[in-house]
Amino acid sequence: MVAIQPTKYIWANGKLVDWKDANVHVMTHGLHYGTGVFEGIRCYETALGPAIFRMKEHLNRLEASARILQMKIPFTVEKMSEGIRELIINNEMKSAYIRPIAFFGVSGVGVNPTGYPVEIYIAAFNFGAYLGEDGLKKGIRVAISSWRRISPASLATMGKICGHYVNSALAITEAKAGGYDEAILLNDQDFVAEGSGENIFIVKNDTLITPPLSAGILPGITRDTVMHLAREESYKVVEANISRSELYVADEVFMVGTAAEITPIREIDQRAIGKGMPGPVTRRLQDIFMRIVKGEDEQYHGWLDFVEEK
Fold first, then answer.
1. For 43-54, what is the mean pLDDT?
2. pLDDT tens-digit map of 259-280
3. Do 60 and 159 lie in a common domain?
4. Cβ–Cβ < 8 Å for 292, 264
């Protein structure tokens, strides 16, 4: 569990409210049926002030997830972007984890949310390494979950939809109970899908392989970032199905996500990956990524939205 320290304000349906006043009714449809969509976005401290990494792409994905639920978010991407900047400034934050969430509110009782009002809240709070600073440096221990990744035939896996994460909660709870840091879920075809909240890459002979969208994964923005950076570094990048045994014999394996950033995996199912420590490709990409998000590479300033205009 990552504890949350309250900040001053939350952006609630277009205006700032006190943290303690950002409440929803117990009969909220999204609470009962998981009919909400959300994002995780990071704001990093840079020499030019707080900078939000790939904010537009995250908010575009929020809208895309909402379309899957036939939900109309009552604010444009531009207005939500302004709200995030306002939140960071008024909370006097240098860095933050940002959580926009939109959901069907209160209207009646029943599974069908058609005609229900849509509410949106955006929170920002301090948040360190999701899988631990030690995990970033030395790698984490992971188990293959007994739970399968939800199938695209049953749920819309392309969306970051609240109800989907019951699947993730079951997997991570099982992994933690077994003494592991994270879980990897296979899909219903027995191929690697993703972690409880991360995409996955393996490295074999300097080639990066990551599951395709057809494996039932969420199209991760950090995943997209890593694929771009790896190609810029002249690594071959392939989207292909990965079997469980391919994980065990990979040279390197790592997880990526907004919360996890780029986290090496040193062990899967009590089997050391490579030399049992973060490998050179993972380290290289991790270093490049952290320089970019901290504003240290001007070539990638286009991926950063600086909170205060310079």
1. 97
2. 999 999 999 999 999 999 999 9
3. no
4. no
Alpha-carbon distances of 205 from 208, 212, 281, rounded to whole Å:
8, 19, 10
Contacts of 208 (CB under 8 A, 6+ apart): 201, 202, 226, 227, 230, 235, 236, 237, 238, 281
Distance CA 61, CA 135 (A): 28
112 alpha-carbon distance from chain centroid: 28
Regarding whether 103 and 77 lie in a shared domain, the answer is yes
Total domain count, the chain = 2
154, 260: one domain: yes
Nearest of 66, 20, 52 to residue 304 by alpha carbon: 52
Give how far Cα 237 sits from Cα of 75, 93, 118, 202, 248, Å.
37, 36, 39, 10, 19
Same domain, 117 and 232: no
State whether residue 47 is helix, strand or coil: coil
Confidence at residue 131, expressed as pLDDT on a 0 to 100 scale: 83
For residue 4, tell me if it sits in a domain: no
For residue 193, the enclosing domain spans 133-293
Helix 55-68 vs helix 221-232: crossing angle, to nearest 10: 130
Q: Is the pLDDT of residue 291 over 80?
A: yes
What is the CA angle 140-143-146, rounded to 5?
155
Q: Does residue 1 fall inside a structural domain? A: no
Looking at the structure, do residues 51 and 159 belong to the same domain, yes or no? no
- What residues are annotated to the active site? 160
